[in-house]
Amino acid sequence: MSQDPPGSLGFYAAMDAYRYGRLDYLSDLVDFEFWRARDVLDLGCGAGLDLVRFARAGARVMGLDLSARALAMAGDYLRVSGLNASLMRADAAQLPFVQASFDLVFCHGVLSFVRDEKALVEEIRRILRPDGTAILMVYNRHSAMYMAHRIAGLPLGHADAPGFRTHSRAEFEALLAPFGTSEVRYERLPARTSQRSGPRVMLFNTALGIVRRVLPETWFQAIGWHLIAKCSIGEKRDPGFGGDVFTDDGSKGQR
After folding, report:
1. CA atoms within 13 A on the CB side of 227
2. Angle subtended at Cα 173 by Cα 167 and Cα 145, rounded to the nearest 5 degrees
3. How many whole angstroms separate alpha carbon 31 and alpha carbon 54?
4. CA-to-CA distance for 249 and 137, rounded, in angstroms?
């Protein structure tokens, strides 16, 4: 991803560009500036790519991960960026924070790998403030990506990870039951691939073209690879998300 020396600012900038290029919805979905001077937990922060964006926006952000190597990279990224944030190594199943500690818990791509996802959701609710927001993400079993993996044999990036699981929308919504309010949407919509070649890729691209022409746009939304939820304990709705809303009845509005 980068020709710059590992650990340099250019090295991390290339990682950031790669992530936000593949997940371009994140820049619109998460209003980083909104969380300025608020307490944010980046749960499963990895190399700190989202963590640094929260810190740059002025949030009081804590990055938590089980991997010491990931935390070392996050620390390096903060250092070369001239930013400050707290880092902690801990197991997400037992979060070392008192009740109502955070205004935002951001947990992207973690629930699909943990041993007890229900326990983690309960923990997130416990440490969330009454007017706070949790942003959670899982992988959609009914997505074009997963269907291509099962039918055409195209590689699925996380399929070989220990404990990896996918979710239907109904399963995800059931998992979010501890929250008073949750809103689920689909992201990372299917796109033609040019990075690989061969008959399976040709089949996928051809099928995707047909699906895009045949399905209504709201149906097409439902085969995105990522399921994203914005959750709160009560009924309060904040501007932590931006962009269009696709509701259960398929209508489209603005947040």
Report:
1. 27
2. 30
3. 9
4. 21
| Residue 174, C-beta contacts closer than 8 angstroms, at least 6 positions apart | none
Written as six digits, the tokens of 8 are 């340099």
Residue 111: alpha-carbon gap to chain centroid:
10
Radius of gyration (Cα) for the chain, nearest Å? 19
Residue 187: the pLDDT is: 84
Q: How far is Cα 135 from Cα 151, in angstroms, rounded to an integer?
A: 31
Residue 72 scores a pLDDT above 80: yes
Tokens of 204: 């996928």
Residue 209: is its pLDDT beyond 50?
yes
Q: pLDDT digits over 143-189, tens only?
A: 877 777 776 666 676 767 788 899 999 999 999 999 999 999 988 75
DSSP H/E element including 65: strand 60-65
User: What is the structure's pLDDT at 152?
Assistant: 65
Residue 136 is encoded by which pair of tokens?
């959670």
The Cα–Cα gap between 89 and 146 comes to: 32
What's this model's pTM, rounded to 2 decimal places? 0.82
3-state DSSP assignment of residue 22: helix
What long-range pairs does 215-218 form, CB within 8 A, spacing at least 24?
216/250, 218/246, 218/250, 218/251, 218/252
pLDDT at 255: 32
Distance (Å, rounded) from C-alpha 138 to C-alpha 226?
A: 6
Question: Which of these, 120, 116, 118, 123, lies nearest to 163 by C-alpha position?
Answer: 116
- Residue 198 has what pLDDT? 64
Task: Give the integer Cα–Cα distance in Å for 20 and 32.
Answer: 14
Token pair for residue 82?
């001239």
